[in-house]
Write a structure and sequence with these properties.
4-stranded antiparallel β-sheet; 1 helix; 17% helix; alpha+beta; 6-stranded mixed β-sheet
């Protein structure tokens, strides 16, 4: 009897921030601790925030937003690793998205999911780094606003003292 499990990991790791243009590499580890082979298709339907870059390992078929390995065989007491890469789309909605892969063995399904958070900024953000804030123009605007507010505070204090 097969005893399958599916673990999905990502680089950058699940829970990390990513920006449009960043690449995410997903790895699916299919393990079978049973005494018979575990055989079945693995399907990952990708969310709209990403596009497939490469099918990586295994013989995967790409159909629109789905990547499918049709008959993955994991031997008794063995494991198989599948990987593929996606890119965060330029028009990806900001915020969290999840990605779930499913392995069907017999009448049972096993799944693994990851989550990433899309933040504004172009490429290179991945790896869980927060985006830079306050570029030259933004910092100048912030300082100008702080100076204006500070001036208002001085003006208010002077008016209070005169009364």
């Amino acid at each position: 009897v097969p005893v399958p499990t599916l673990v999905k990991t990502a680089n950058p790791p699940s829970g990390s921030t990513v920006a449009p243009g960043d690449t995410i590499t997903y790895t699916l580890t299919l393990t079978n601790t049973g005494t018979a082979d575990a055989v079945g298709p693995v399907v990952d339907t990708l969310p709209s925030q990403v596009s497939i870059v490469s099918a990586g390992t295994g013989s995967a078929a790409i159909d629109g937003r789905s990547i499918t390995w049709t008959a993955v065989t994991v031997p008794a007491n063995g494991s198989v690793t599948l990987s593929y890469s996606v890119i965060v789309n330029a028009d990806a909605d900001l915020g969290a998205f999840s990605n779930n892969a499913v392995w069907s063995v017999g009448d049972q399904t096993y799944s693994g999911a990851t989550t990433h958070i899309v933040v504004a900024g172009g490429g290179g953000g991945g790896g869980g780094e927060l985006p830079m804030t306050g570029d030259g123009a933004g910092l100048g605007t912030t300082l100008m606003l702080a100076g204006a507010l500070s001036g208002l505070g001085l003006f208010a204090r002077r008016r209070l003292r005169r009364r």
